[in-house]
Write a sequence for this structure.
């Protein structure tokens, strides 16, 4: 589509979490998101992002970055293709990139999936996250979720072997994946991997810090290991070969759906399995990721399930099944 003058508005929203969400780096009780809206005067496109402190992002910084794009947008000098060079990968570009996709679909009277030349979207099974806590507390949460086919277990603290064993007893029939969020060390790596293997865990995300993960390439891995904090966009893929078996693609890391789709193709070319993940956010952030998740072997788009409530026209979840978005939400 040709470039047109567009108006951009952005706002901060706070969505309470049901209880608390805890990982190795801390806990939070609300999801703070930034929503970007693009308008051509007739149609409106929206995108949502989650600024993440781990990547030196702040809400104020994202708002400033989006504001810096207003002049170019208003003059008709920026479209989705140009955006990829105008902004670096990260949360701010993700919100704007997804808003472009939504706007383009609505202007064309079609779907984002059709614009991306993808086949019809189908229902997917998402993981459901068990927050990091004491072993007994996590086992209780796992027992309540034991009917779900796929549980994602947050680890990354002393006592992880006891945690994973207790969860396996509480949810004997669920597939388990684990996420250490960089919380292990080269010294306890083998012990923790062995405990996960004994519990039948099928995938472990980011066991070691992103800047200290060389040990993964020097050992036999009894469980498949997936990069998360170590991988962002296509440029970060090559040095992961030999250390990781899969990569977790998140739109807030890639800077939007445009780069994520290209990254998925390159990751597959390099032999990585694909996982599509999310931050804790509303269905507006999950909707574009649904396009990417169609090709993934592991889907983790449970963000809205962790909130006290979702936004109107949100994704429809039936247990762990998540249905494609309707146009009233996005795309």
């Amino acid at each position: 589509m040709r470039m047109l003058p567009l108006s951009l508005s952005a706002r901060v929203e706070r969505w309470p979490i049901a209880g608390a969400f805890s990982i190795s780096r801390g806990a939070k009780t609300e999801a703070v998101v930034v929503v970007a809206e693009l308008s051509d005067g007739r149609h409106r496109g929206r995108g949502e992002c989650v600024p993440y402190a781990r990547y030196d992002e702040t809400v104020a910084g994202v708002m400033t970055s989006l504001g810096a794009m207003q002049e170019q947008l208003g003059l008709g000098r920026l479209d989705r293709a140009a955006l990829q060079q105008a902004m670096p990968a990260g949360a701010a570009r993700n919100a704007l990139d997804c808003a472009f996709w939504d706007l383009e679909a609505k202007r064309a009277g079609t779907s984002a999936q059709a614009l991306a030349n993808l086949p019809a979207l189908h229902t997917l099974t998402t993981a459901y996250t068990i927050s990091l806590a004491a072993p007994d507390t996590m086992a209780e949460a796992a027992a309540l979720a034991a009917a779900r086919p796929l549980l994602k277990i947050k680890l990354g603290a002393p006592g992880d072997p006891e945690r994973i064993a207790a969860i396996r007893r509480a949810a004997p029939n669920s597939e388990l994946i684990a996420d250490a969020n960089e919380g292990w060390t080269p010294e306890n790596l083998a012990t923790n991997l062995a405990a996960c293997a004994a519990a039948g865990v099928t995938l472990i995300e980011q066991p070691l810090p992103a800047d200290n993960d060389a040990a993964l390439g020097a050992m036999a891995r009894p469980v498949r290991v997936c990069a998360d904090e170590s991988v962002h966009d296509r440029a970060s893929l090559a040095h992961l070969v030999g250390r990781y078996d899969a990569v977790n693609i998140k739109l807030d890391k890639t800077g939007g759906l445009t780069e994520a789709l290209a990254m998925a193709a390159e990751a597959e070319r390099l032999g990585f399995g694909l996982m599509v993940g999310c931050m804790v956010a509303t269905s507006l952030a999950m909707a574009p990721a649904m396009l990417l998740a169609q090709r993934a072997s592991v889907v983790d788009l449970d963000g809205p399930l962790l909130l006290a409530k979702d936004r109107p026209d949100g994704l429809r979840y039936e247990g762990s099944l998540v249905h494609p978005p309707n146009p009233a939400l996005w795309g």
User: Anything to note?
Assistant: The longest strand covers residues 7-23.
